[in-house]
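Reopening this ticket.

The earlier resolution said the output was attached, but the attachment link was broken on my side. Pasting everything inline this time so it's all in one place.
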Amino acid sequence: MKYEMSMDRLCPATFAFQVIGGKWNLPILACLSEEENIRYNELKRRLSGITGTTLTNCLKDLIDNGIVHRLQYNEIPPRVEYSLTPSGRELVPLIQSIVAWGERNITAPDK
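Inline output:
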């Protein structure tokens, strides 16, 4: 298979890898893929080592990219839930394929 290496053709791939490529984006997406909806504090508990600021910023970026949906309820105390959008759910099998590739190749000797 021959790949055309023009930037016009690579831009969508670059965008896709920017969306999932942040240090915490894949773990966040993994957590969100396991639940229909998840609250902020539960998400933070599942992501050992992430700071609140980092989680907030990553969620904002994923929301801005149309991957995550944020739903705020008008309740006291405030309740906010996060879930994958249809576009985010579309990423799940792709990420699973990348993980499977990584598992097969992580210990492969240099060729």
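Reporter confirms the inline version is readable. The two ends are 21 Å apart (CA to CA). The mean pLDDT is 87.
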